[in-house]
Amino acid sequence: MSTTTRAAVVESGGAPFTLTDVELDEPGPGEALVRMVATGLCHTDLGVASGGLPFPLPGVLGHEGAGVVEAVGPNVTGVAPGDHVVLSFTSCGGCHNCRDGHPAYCATWLPLNLIGGRRADGTSTISRDGAPLGGHFFGQSSFAERALVDERSLVKVDPNVQLESIAPLGCGVQTGVGAVWNVLKPEAGSSLVVLGAGAVGLSAVMAAALTPATTVIAVDKAAERLELARELGATHTVNAAEADVTEAVLALTDGRGADGVVEATGSVAVLRKGADALAPRGTLVVVGAPPFGTEVALDVNALLPGKKVVGLTLGDSETQTSIPALVALVQDGRLPLHRLITHYPFADIERAVRDMSAGKTIKPVLTF
């Protein structure tokens, strides 16, 4: 039996989010119906809404959900009605990378999460007046009062933690944290640079503050974000509007360069600056995603001293392990995620979009 719910629908590329009633299919095998409590707004949502990716529109986006399970479909064993859950990406569970503990690199990740708009079998999860809509975004489409969610997108969490405070863990936060913990893995005394002090970059700064790295450099053009980065654990900041990034990093590392760099801006010019600032055997983690087909020129000879450039999706996280750990850190105050969040009523989604686009807020979280 279908469920009618209120959702924010994007009618076409570049159109605003419009609240309207939609119908959710009943939970099928491996699915659950979740009452949304909160959901983060991410730049990926805005990129798809603008028409920058081939997601089928009209459609319902949203991929940083948090809520309470209301019903489950056949064969669901990991959650039950009443469970509090954080929603993250989905994956097939059976390919080589999924079996190897790297579901963010699932063989079917793109169609299941970002561009397919349907279940793996091609059926629709959301419709309006009998016509199917693009849905199943990251296995959830959480810009709605209720969402039909893949079990593999669901992570059961401590019910004592306010869901409004942890919704961004499903994408942006675990991406920034994972860049540091899962890829760079800083050793004692190492240096780390974060390019871009948005939600992902500041999550990387907070993660770096919980490692043995002794030099954590945050780079941005906004002075207030650089000040926040210092408060969250950066030992140094660089204002990219006032200084050359590569030269500044070299100066702060006694000419050696950085052991690790997180590129979270999506700018190929900034990426190149980060690559040029690497120390021998250093690693640049590419997190920011420019439009498909974007290329960057690198000095090949400069890479020969063991330097690495590594792409990253969703922190290379195994969500069932990583998200509960992050929830515990938020609960203990060691991951002060609340410093990034501004709450908006779901009905004010367009105001949240404007504020995020204008840089007035770092991580908007919609509440229901």
TrEMBL record:
Belongs to the zinc-containing alcohol dehydrogenase family. This is NAD(P)-dependent alcohol dehydrogenase. The keyword Hydrolase does not apply. It comes from the Bacteria. Pfam families: ADH_N, ADH_zinc_N. Its cofactor is Zn(2+). Keywords: Metal-binding, Oxidoreductase, Zinc. It comes from Streptomyces sp. R41. GO terms for molecular function: oxidoreductase activity; zinc ion binding. Residues 14-366 form the Enoyl reductase (ER) domain. The keyword Oxidoreductase applies.
